[in-house]
Structure formats: structure tokens, C-alpha cells
Amino acid sequence: MTYKAPTLVPLALAGGQGKTTVALMTGRILASYGIPVLFVDADPQASLTDFLGVDPEDRPTLLEVLTRSPEKLPLFKAIHEVPDNENLFLIPSTDELENANHSLAASPASISVLRNRIQQAGETVKDKDKITANFGVIIIDPPPERSHLTLTSLGSGDRWVICAEANIKGVKSLKRTKGLIETCQSMVPLGEFIGTIPFRAKWTGLNPTRVTRTNIEVMEALVGKELMLPHILESDIYKRAIDELTLPGELGYEALEFPLRSLIERLRPLLGQYAKSVPVLKTEEEE
Ligand SMILES: Nc1ncnc2c1ncn2[C@@H]1O[C@H](COP(=O)(O)OP(=O)(O)OP(=O)(O)O)[C@@H](O)[C@H]1O
Ligand SMILES: [Mg+2]
To answer: Which single residue of 29, 158, 201, 223 could bond 6 by disulfide (Cβ 3.0 to 4.6 Å)?
Structure first.
């Protein structure tokens, strides 16, 4: 059987919940294992495109992928190399991507438009030549609002992770995002919600602050213990890693990558031959 790269989509129906950070860092970690990763920036804010240091110049972006036919624009033409990382690739975004919302709105099955494009559905491409056979993992970074771009990103996901700040806004966003997944699940029967990552959890010394602890408890009550992933700490190291186009581990803070490594562990069953490139996860205590 030809390998089919799983698509991971971090979701949140509010801004600043950690979607782009989770997408970026998860991809960088997978690439550090030698796994080829294709990012898709589905947000007109184009944060992921910026964070990867890609300038789309006048080459095709996701806008053209979503608005032109595969005959006019074969998918590979919109795939850009990420500078200084041989395992990272990106279908970038620009602020013009906003216009894709109009054409998606006009499509009767907008939820599956991006999925069909990524899977090259109905195209005369041999399975072994498909994009999904030639990457290890595909990661899509959606916008924060309930738009057609968000829906088509959700629809292309094999695995969804909800990012939610460890505060009241994050809890509200988690509730709404979980609701959206539940509404869409029947249209994306193979998609699976694999976890919630609390974002910017605040600790003082050895203990979480009261606000962080309470909100993480509410999140756990909402999704259940099994669907809670370890939290991402509030830390300037993440921001530094983003700015310096690297990972917290490269800055000497490997323990900060633990939540993302835990997320990758949940992808392991889908990784085929690539699974053996992923080191076995040590528990937080062993780290
Ligand atoms: N661990 C961290 N601690 C503190 N700040 C962080 C951390 N990680 C990332 N940030 C910052 O938090 C901000 C929001 O994160 P991010 O862009 O990942 O959220 P988002 O959900 O993608 O936002 P948007 O909805 O705007 O796309 C970013 O500006 C980033 O620099
Ligand atoms: Mg973002």
C-alpha cells in the first residue's frame, strides 16, 4: 500500500490560542527527525509563512490552489522550499487569501475543497507520485474565525488538536471549537480529535497559578482526561525560538518541547515507515 501522509490541523475559534506555534514547532520537531513535512498556511494573516521565513514573491500560493483547477495549477507548483531546512516545505499564504472565502462560499462542498486538492482526488496522478505519498506529515494552520477557510482546513484534517489559552477566553474558545468539530464530524468521518493543548500556562516556582490551574481543570472537565495533552508554558523561549527560526531545544530548553512531542506520539500510529524515526517519548519526569 502506498503511504498516505496524515494531515494534522490545530484548531481554535479565537485569536492567539497557539495554533501557529503548535503547527510550526510540531513541524520543526518532525523535520529534525528527518521526516519531510508539508505546511499549508490557510490564514490570510500569513503568520506561519512569516515564521518560516518564506517570501512567496509572485509564485502561486494557497489562494491559487483553492481557486484554480488542478489542470491549471498542479499542486506541486504552489509548494515552496523553506530556507535552511531540507525537510520543510510550505504552501504559503498572503493577505489576498481572504478572497478564497468567496469562492469557497460558492462551492457546495467547501468543507472538502482543500482535502480534495491535497489528496489530488480525481487527478490522473499515480498513487506513488501523489503529494501525500512524498511527505511524512502535512500540517495546516487555519485562521481563528469561523470562516470558509477554517471549515476547509478542518475538513482536510485526519487529526485535529485544539489549542486553548489557559484562561477564560481559552475555555470559551475550546467549547466553541469542540462544538464545531462535533457539527462537522459527520462530513469528515475519518477525522479524529486527538487532544487539547493548554497554551501559555503560567507557573510560579513549582506550582501553576490559580487561574491556570482552574482553567485547565475546566478544560479537562470539558474534553475528558484522555484528550488533555501537556500544557505549553508561558515562556519567552518560545517567542525567541519563533524569532530565531529554531526550536526551544536548540536554545537549550528541550523540556519545553514536551507537549509537542506528546502530540507527535499521538500521530505515531499513522506514520508508517516514518514512525521508527520518532524517538520513544520519555515521561516528563525522565526528561
Ligand atoms: N509559550 C509561549 N509563551 C508566551 N507567548 C507565546 C508562547 N508561544 C507563542 N507565544 C506568542 O503568542 C502569540 C500567539 O500565538 P500563535 O500565533 O501561535 O496563536 P494563533 O492561535 O496562531 O493566533 P492567530 O489566531 O492570530 O492565528 C504569538 O505572538 C507568539 O509569539
Ligand atoms: Mg495563527
So the answer is: 158
Full-model pTM: 0.97
Residue 31's CATH number: 3.40.50.300
Q: Answer yes or no: is 253 within a domain.
A: yes
- State the distance from the centre of ligand 1 to the C-alpha of 228, rounded, in angstroms: 19
Q: Are 100 and 143 in contact (CB under 8 A)?
A: no
- What is the span of the domain harbouring residue 258? 7-269
Residue 242 lies inside a defined structural domain of this protein:
yes
pLDDT at 40 exceeding the cut of 80: yes
What does the pLDDT average to over 92-100? 97
> Can you tell me the distance from the alpha carbon of 78 to that of 30, in angstroms, rounded to the nearest whole number?
22
Q: Is residue 61 part of a domain?
A: yes
Q: Measure the CA angle with vertex 60, ends 58 and 64; round to 5°.
A: 130
What is the number of the ligand 1 atom nearest to the C-alpha of 12?
A: 21
Residue whose CA lies nearest to ligand 1 atom number 31? 239
Among 230, 241, 221, 90, residue whose Cα is nearest residue 161: 230
- pLDDT above 90 covers a percentage of the chain that reads 95
Which helix (H) or strand (E) segment holds residue 264: the answer is helix 258-267
Q: Confirm whether 2 is domain-assigned.
A: no
Check residue 26 and report its DSSP letter: H
